[in-house]
Design a protein that fits this description.
Oligomer: single chain
Radius of gyration: 21 Å
Strand content: over 45%
CATH class of the largest domain: Mainly Beta
Structural class: mainly beta
Number of strands: 16
Distance between the termini: 52 Å
């Protein structure tokens, strides 16, 4: 058991029958009244953000978590299959546990957050950016690059993104996996 003085960014706590990660916190000591800790918590299982204020000295139940690197192997009807890079153990993860799974490319490394005591996977974090090849897009018109216009494109994983007009089929682009936005064209 810990208390509110142990709160820091990234700490995982067991609260309200769920596991939450501390995103932001602020210790506040007002001129009048008792001190408190204002926090922004993110549910590890659902991804939902919650603001909560703990009174100073409040007992919190910390959860020990481990981040492990896994390689994405393939997807089938039973879910996404990953292999631990150190032990070569394979795990199957359900699609509900992942955000933006449409950008996951075979052979990519991801971080899986594990509950250390119970050895169960909690959530999967994709890399911040991924480099994917454009498999289909309409050709851009010559001289049509002065505006910031975007066109739809399909990447090798089957996901649809919006890219600038000068991007063609076969180009490799870097995209942000959190938002799905185009970042830049990758030089070959």
């Amino acid at each position: 058991m810990a208390n509110t003085s142990d709160i820091r960014n990234g700490l995982c706590i067991n609260w309200n029958n769920d596991i939450y990660s501390v995103v932001e916190f602020q210790h506040v000591k007002p001129g009048k009244g008792n001190a408190f800790v204002r926090t922004k918590l993110k549910s590890v299982t659902t991804g939902k953000n919650v603001d909560y204020t703990f009174p100073a000295g409040h007992k919190i139940d910390t959860v020990r978590v481990e981040r492990r690197i896994f390689q994405f192997l393939y997807k089938d009807d039973s879910g996404f299959h990953f292999m631990n890079n150190e032990t070569y153990e394979q795990v199957t993860i359900q699609p509900e546990m992942m955000e933006n799974a449409q950008f996951l490319k075979e052979g990519s490394n991801v971080e899986i957050l594990y509950h250390a005591a119970e050895e169960i996977p909690l959530t999967i974090e994709l890399p911040q950016t991924m480099e994917l090849e454009i498999t289909y897009t309409e050709p851009g018109l010559k001289g049509d690059t002065a505006t910031n216009a975007l066109k739809p494109a399909t990447v090798e994983t089957g996901a649809e993104i919006r890219v600038p007009l000068f991007i063609n089929e076969g180009d490799v682009v870097k995209i942000d996996t959190n938002t799905g936005n185009y970042l830049e064209r990758v030089k070959k």
